[in-house]
Write a structure and sequence with these properties.
Length: 560
């Protein structure tokens, strides 16, 4: 097993009102080493809490078992009432591969968990999605049909023997569904109605399963085998129902987006808007249940900007702001991206201390007696500022009156600039990290031959890293000069001086990084690597000086 395997677990517990019970369950998760609790999302009307945590597979399955055990102890399903379909104290517990692990391996961990829950807790367990033991058990809705109230009778049916545990109904804990699946987005769209029937009509328009076809008399139509004929909905890989939420006084379309590559969140939202409008309704906002990958909101932001005929080459923060406002994710409660986006929750700000600083603090840190940050980090930052100016010109040009036919061109250039800027910003701290690795190697013991060999190998690897980082700065800054030249030639003439300043910054970044390459190559005993690095640096330095002259000549002609 790879040491960097990461899986996510998103159990749904049938308690959304008593925070003391919810806290006791999540405490069980947090007490397991190797697990990080990311999100706890209780719902009063649904009387259900969605919990999200990540970690290595063994730790996650241990935490999941403890949480299921605690939920069975504290939640009495015979007294449970809520809007959401449910069948157990822990209703569903999916494992999701995040990195370094396959779906097949994740499914194996799900079976380990299911077997243990069934054996030790006497809870009937059904396996679903990629961990399903039978094709008819892949779909959660099929397993959950009849819900808690129908489970005692269902367990007596030979076709519905649980995969693990007894077929004796557990009146207090109910039954649990455990499985392995791809990332699922739980998403609700708000309507300006209290009618569940009308919300369901929209849901049937949207969901892949659609609705049953009826004849002129309203009778369900069937095929030759007696199976209902269905009119498919607009969105693939979407499950949806309509419900009423007394807490908010509105009806919602509650969706599970089971494949966000087939139907992204913004497309599901647009289709809900289209269907609602055709039925005299209006979408007023929406809400995310649990967490989402950052890409979900970035793609949504780009989609809505494109519909507005605006440049999508803006910062990550701005794209997410556009997505949140357009989707109305803050209609029912405040929406904090830092608490709803997986990548933000997993970020360790301590690993990038320089770029987290204010401009004043960054300057003060540079001016201090510490040798880092030094010229390498400054070169990367100057390069980021240079390409940011070119990106600004592209975005301003996309809004110029009479240039509507060129929006896509400038938007693409701005997006290119944002990518270069972000990559250069990453290198600000990377340069300092590389320098620190050299210091770490120098501090290693060297008393014995083995220690000397280990220290030498560490020093060799650290020096290569210290050379490769400024080479990357040079490559990215040189690449940015191509975009800056295009913006000086084709961009808004009123901003041409900004493109010129950007070119000066980019050339400075290339020259500054070249100095770092040279000093780090000095005395390095890997002659072949040194020769290659110096040749690359010299070539890029020549090209950067030529590009700078060309851009400045263009700029000076236009500002005379």
């Amino acid at each position: 097993m790879s040491s960097n395997q990461l899986i996510e677990c998103v159990p749904n517990f049938s308690e959304g009102r008593d925070m003391n019970i919810i806290k006791q369950i999540t405490d069980e998760i947090e007490n397991v080493e190797g697990v990080r609790l990311l999100d706890v999302d209780p719902g009063k009307a649904t009387n259900r809490t969605v919990v999200t945590f990540v970690g290595n597979p063994s730790s996650v399955t241990e935490a999941a078992f403890r949480a299921i055990r605690k939920a069975a102890e504290l939640i009495d399903m015979s007294r449970h009432k809520g809007e959401h379909p449910r069948m157990g104290a822990t209703d569903v517990c999916p494992l999701i591969p995040i990195s370094g692990i396959s779906m097949e391996e994740t499914a194996a961990y799900a079976h380990q968990l299911g077997k243990r829950v069934g054996a030790e807790l006497n809870i009937p367990v059904f396996m679903y999605e990629s961990a399903a033991t039978k094709p008819e058990r892949q779909n959660l809705a099929t397993i959950r049909a009849g819900e808690y109230e129908g489970m005692a009778a269902k367990l007596k049916d030979p076709k519905w023997q649980p995969d693990y545990g007894t077929n004796t109904f557990n009146e207090k804990a109910g039954a649990t569904v455990i499985g392995a699946r791809d990332f699922l987005v739980a998403y609700n769209v708000n309507l300006n109605t209290t009618s569940v029937r009308r919300a369901n009509a929209v849901a049937f328009d949207i969901r892949e399963n659609g609705r049953i076809e009826t004849d002129a008399n309203g009778k369900n139509m069937t095929d030759a085998n007696g199976e209902p004929l269905r009119i498919p909905g607009a969105c693939k890989s979407v499950k949806a129902i309509g419900w009423y939420i007394p807490e908010y006084g509105i009806a919602q379309i509650s969706m599970n987006l089971t494949n966000i590559n087939e139907t992204p969140l913004h497309i599901a939202f647009d289709e809900c808007c289209k269907s609602a409008q055709s039925r005299g309704l209006r979408v007023t906002g929406s809400e995310l249940v649990g967490l989402v990958p950052k890409s979900v909101l970035l793609e949504a932001g780009k989609h809505f900007l494109k519909k507005q005929r605006r440049s999508s080459g803006i910062s990550e923060k701005e794209l997410i702001h556009i997505a949140v406002r357009t989707l109305g994710l803050d209609e029912l409660s405040p929406f904090d991206p830092s608490k709803k986006i997986i990548e933000y929750l997993l970020e360790d700000s301590s690993s990038n201390p320089l770029v987290q600083k204010t401009l004043i603090d960054f300057a003060n840190e540079t001016a201090s007696e510490s040798p880092a940050p030094g010229g390498g980090s400054i070169s990367a930052y100057v390069g980021a500022l240079g390409v940011s100016l070119g990106t600004m010109v592209a975005n301003l040009s996309s809004h110029k009156a009479g240039w509507d036919d060129r929006i896509d061109y400038f938007s693409n250039k701005a997006t290119e600039g944002q990518q270069l800027k972000d990559a250069l910003i990453d290198l600000v701290d990377a340069d300092t990290h590389a320098f620190n690795k050299i210091l770490d190697a120098l501090r290693m013991p060297k008393s014995t031959d083995d220690e000397k060999a280990t220290r030498k190998a560490a020093m060799h690897a650290a020096t290569i890293g210290a050379i490769e980082v400024p080479l990357k700065v040079m490559k990215l800054s040189l690449a940015s000069m191509e975009m800056l030249k295009e913006m000086s030639e084709n961009g808004n003439p009123n901003s041409v001086s900004d493109a010129g300043v950007g070119a000066l910054c980019a050339r400075t970044a290339v020259e500054g990084a070249a100095l770092n390459v040279r000093i780090n190559c000095n005395g390095f005993d890997d002659k072949q690597f040194v020769a290659s690095a110096l040749a690359q640096a010299d070539d890029m330095l020549i090209k950067a000086k030529v590009s700078e002259r060309e851009i400045i000549e263009i700029v000076e002609k236009l500002i005379v």
